């Protein structure tokens, strides 16, 4: 309906009411006639089940409960889609619901079409909403159907469509008014899955070069913004530069590390989808660079499975790239990703290949990094002496290369393994030297890791008060920096200290938080270990009267 059609129907008396429904919002009725806007969302799961039960019969829905849930999911709880699906099932009573679900799964919207009754066809109903849009707005709608990710923002749409920011926002507002997408908090826009499928179908009518160019632009937007975010998160990291973005594509401005983290959090699912889109487009350099640019964020947030998948894609992409360094780094980071997940056999295989390639190409810098990662892998396998040997090798290489930030990292590693082997004087000396370098070069992550090691040394040498202080300082830094991955490790050590002092409630609190984080990060071996520690603590409650001395 249009405002011109509705206005003559409006009542002249306050005792009368008219209800107007439609996919368009008709804002002029609100502005000029004081109409009340009542947005209708998709059905709840219970409402969707009730609708299907009313159409199909309660018994059939109860008998095929699991497939009913799948139908609700496949329809996205959209009322018309559910009604059409119910009609398909009712008119074919001999066909089990599993086959109806299979039809929805494969051709998708074709199952929700109807040749003779347009009002009972979801694609036709959606097409009616497009009629009042301009050609440009319809093109934006179509391109949104092929854009990577579950939702988007106005800056990303500007890149996708090659529109100025104001034009992109205007198009999004028009699509929102037509109920083709929904605006969500923090300036995000999302389509219902079925509407998105329809948009993707419409996009096939666009010339292939238009689709490919649009995808290339939005991929560049996400890649270059991710690189800018990564630089803010870890300014001491090796500086890599991707190819320039397409003309007119500008990264989203990020003023500081907090804004960078917020952007990466909000866009994470879209960035993973962007890497998959780059694979499909054959943009191998982009696939590799996205794995690299997301790595610090993945490690800090403990997104270990996503990190692994990202580097697997990057390793495949490196086979198409001429620079040997891309393959070396892909193997090294895959080795680290497997190490973090406790999959040490797989880790060693990748790290050995990385080290052999680095030696063949005389890449001393990469050899230093690989030795540091091998140290972590051998620690995970319980061989601290082998880990110490690799850490010392890395330290020598970083010093020879005059890389003080990474020298500090290797110093801290040597101190950590020396402490685990009981050589506390060597451990303390190396960690104190590392801490001085960390602070001189403003490396807060390195400082937090070194403080964690100093806490362990203090604990093992009986200086419990100093140990608690170091652990708490490390936790503050890790949390402030959003380095979620390291938090449960430090909590675990703090729990051991409290348990040794008889402070069982404090130990339990630290271990419970560590356990939740390990589980969230998919670190199953660590989770099992902490669960056993909690079980061993038993039902002991309350702290002993001992104080930290």
Your description of this structure?
Keywords: TPR repeat. It is elongated, with a radius of gyration of 29 Å. The longest helix has 26 residues. Among the domains are: 31 residues, no CATH class; 74 residues; 75 residues, Orthogonal Bundle (Arc Repressor Mutant, subunit A); 108 residues, no CATH class; 63 residues, no CATH class. It starts with a helix and ends in a 12-residue tail after the last helix. With 549 residues, the protein is mainly alpha-helical. The C terminus is likely disordered. A hairpin with a 3-residue loop joins strand 2 and strand 3.
Helix/strand-derived category reads mainly alpha
Backbone CA Rg:
29 Å
- Terminal Cα separation, in Å? 78 Å
Q: What's the β-strand tally?
A: 3
Number of helices: 27
Largest sheet: 3 strands, antiparallel
The pLDDT mean sits at 90
Helix content: 55-70%
Largest beta sheet: strand ordering: 1-3-2
Please state the overall shape, judged from the principal axes of the Cα atoms: elongated
- Element-by-element helix/strand order: HHHHHHHHHEHHEEHHHHHHHHHHHHHHHH
Strand composition percent: under 5%
Low-confidence residue ranges: 540-549
Organism: Saccharothrix tamanrassetensis
InterPro entries: P-loop_NTPase, TPR-like_helical_dom_sf, TPR_rpt
Pfam families: TPR_10, TPR_12
Keywords: TPR repeat
């Amino acid at each position: 309906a249009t405002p011109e059609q509705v206005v003559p129907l409006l009542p002249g008396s306050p005792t009368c009411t008219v209800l107007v429904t439609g996919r368009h919002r008709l804002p002029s009725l609100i502005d000029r006639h004081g109409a009340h806007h009542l947005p209708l969302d998709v059905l709840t799961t219970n409402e969707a089940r009730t609708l299907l039960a009313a159409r199909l019969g309660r018994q059939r829905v109860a008998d095929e409960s699991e497939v009913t849930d799948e139908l609700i999911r496949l329809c996205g709880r959209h009322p018309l889609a559910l009604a059409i699906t119910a009609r398909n099932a009712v008119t074919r009573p001999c066909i089990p619901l599993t086959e109806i679900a299979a039809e929805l799964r494969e051709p998708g919207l074709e199952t929700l079409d109807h040749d003779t009754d347009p009002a009972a066809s979801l694609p036709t109903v959606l097409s009616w909403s497009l009629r009042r849009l301009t050609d440009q707005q319809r093109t934006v709608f179509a391109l949104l159907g092929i854009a990577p990710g579950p939702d988007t923002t106005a800056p990303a749409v500007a890149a996708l469509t090659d529109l100025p920011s104001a034009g992109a926002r205007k198009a999004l507002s028009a699509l929102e008014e037509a109920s083709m997408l929904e605006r969500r908090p923090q300036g995000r826009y999302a389509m219902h899955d079925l509407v998105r499928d329809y948009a993707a179908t419409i996009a096939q009518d666009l010339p292939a070069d238009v689709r490919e160019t649009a995808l290339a632009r939005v991929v560049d937007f996400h890649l270059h913004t991710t690189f800018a975010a990564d630089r803010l998160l870890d300014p001491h990291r090796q500086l890599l530069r991707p190819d320039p973005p397409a003309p007119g594509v500008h990264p989203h401005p990020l003023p500081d590390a907090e804004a960078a983290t917020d952007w990466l959090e909000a866009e994470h699912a879209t960035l993973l989808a962007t890497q998959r889109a780059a694979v499909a487009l054959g943009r191998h350099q982009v696939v590799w660079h996205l794995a690299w640019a997301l790595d610090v964020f993945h490690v800090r947030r403990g997104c270990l499975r996503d990190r692994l998948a990202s580097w697997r894609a990057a390793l495949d992409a490196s086979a198409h790239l001429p620079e040997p360094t891309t393959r070396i780094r892909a193997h090294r980071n895959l080795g680290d990703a497997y190490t973090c997940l406790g999959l040490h056999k797989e880790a060693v295989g990748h790290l050995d290949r990385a080290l052999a390639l680095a030696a063949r190409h005389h890449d001393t810098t990469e050899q230093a990094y690989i030795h540091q990662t091998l140290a972590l892998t051998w620690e995970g396998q319980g061989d601290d002496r082998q880990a110490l040997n690799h850490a010392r090798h890395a330290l020598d290489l970083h010093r020879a290369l005059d890389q003080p930030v990474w020298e500090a990292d290797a110093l801290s590693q040597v101190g950590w393994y020396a402490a685990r082997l009981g050589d506390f004087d060597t451990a303390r000396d190396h960690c104190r030297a590392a801490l001085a370098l960390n602070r001189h070069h403003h490396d807060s992550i390195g400082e937090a890791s070194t403080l964690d090691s100093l806490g362990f040394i203090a604990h093992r040498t009986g200086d419990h008060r100093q140990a608690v202080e170091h652990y708490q300082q490390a936790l503050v830094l890790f949390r402030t920096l959003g380095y979620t991955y390291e938090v449960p490790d430090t909590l675990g050590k703090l729990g051991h200290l409290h348990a040794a002092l008889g402070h069982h409630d404090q130990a339990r609190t630290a271990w419970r938080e560590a356990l939740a984080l390990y589980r969230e990060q998919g670190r199953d071996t660590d989770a099992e270990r902490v669960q056993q520690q909690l079980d061993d603590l038993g039902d002991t409650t309350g702290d002993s009267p001992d104080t930290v001395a």
